Amino acid sequence: MFTIPDKTSNEKPGNRLDIAIPGPSHALMTHAPKPTTTQSLERKLGDFMRARLPRVVSEFTMFVLKQGWACLFGISMLGGLIVTDAVWRDHWALARYDALLIYAITLQVGFLWFKLETWQEVRVIALFHLTGTLMELFKVNAGSWAYPEPALMKLAGVPLFSGFMYAAVGSYMARVIRIFDMRFAPYPPFWMSIALAVAIYANFFAHHYLPDIRVALFVATIILFIRTKIWFRVGQSAYWMPLPLAALASSFFLWLAENVGTNTGTWIYAGQGGIDWVSLSKMGSWYLLLYVSFATVTLVYRDALSSRALTDYRTRPETRPVPPPSGSD
Fold first, then answer.
1. Are 208 and 270 in contact (CB under 8 A)?
2. Is 288 left (phi over 0), alpha (psi -120 to 50) or beta?
3. What is the pTM of this model?
4. CA-CA distances (angstroms) from residue 2 to 69, 211, 248, 292, 311?
5. pLDDT digits (tens, 9 = 90+) for 86-98
6. Which is deepest, 10, 22, 123, 160, by most CB within 10 Å?
């Protein structure tokens, strides 16, 4: 364990946040801004567990809890799919898909009301909603998948709540960067990441008419991001993970979420039975789509990107992070 004092600071030792480093030569920042409500709760819970559990167990538990908190919108949406599938009846006046739309809008309003998301993040999440809905309109009418139930709020076979499923991914990515105080370094030239994201998104449409270039896109993600580490904090410790590995792990959980959708009959893929598992090839699709999602989120979180490798977490891009609103997580 390495504790990094800030020799230039005049603050009293009791105000310093000491950081434990898992590697031999990596230092993190020793000072943090005033903690938000969620950060204060995290520290209290972390202190409680560290006093009673082995460090590895307590840190892993905190990691899982913070991940769950970050994907709260997505978990809530999946819960809505499961509950409505269990209780909804065909003869009810309100269609299930329309109820899910009302539920999703209520969730989004609640996230803003309780300051779980910032207005800046919501603008990016709205972009997820738009790009996701456009893809839904194309893919459903191309026969890739279908929404079998009737609804009043349906456009060209696509229920309008479906855009919120993509927004859930955007919500997770925006919140997880903020909650874990993530940094991405060394990050490739920003224009390259945007160009790759545009190529990936375009291929989801173009492969219906032109040769599918997804293999080349897989290779491009590795070439471009193989050196990029995601630095994140859990309590008083700092860790890192290769960005492509994080994308692969996330795609697995999105594949599980896909199975919740199909097993509740919310959407069905072409050729899929009601109880069949979604093809593992969808993991590859989500792996690529996550790079589109990440590029979209970095439009807001440019300050989390560094072109140089971080040997000191006090090494920041030139602009400081945008603080969350008062009372937010």
1. no
2. alpha
3. 0.80
4. 28, 52, 31, 37, 13
5. 999 989 999 999 9
6. 160
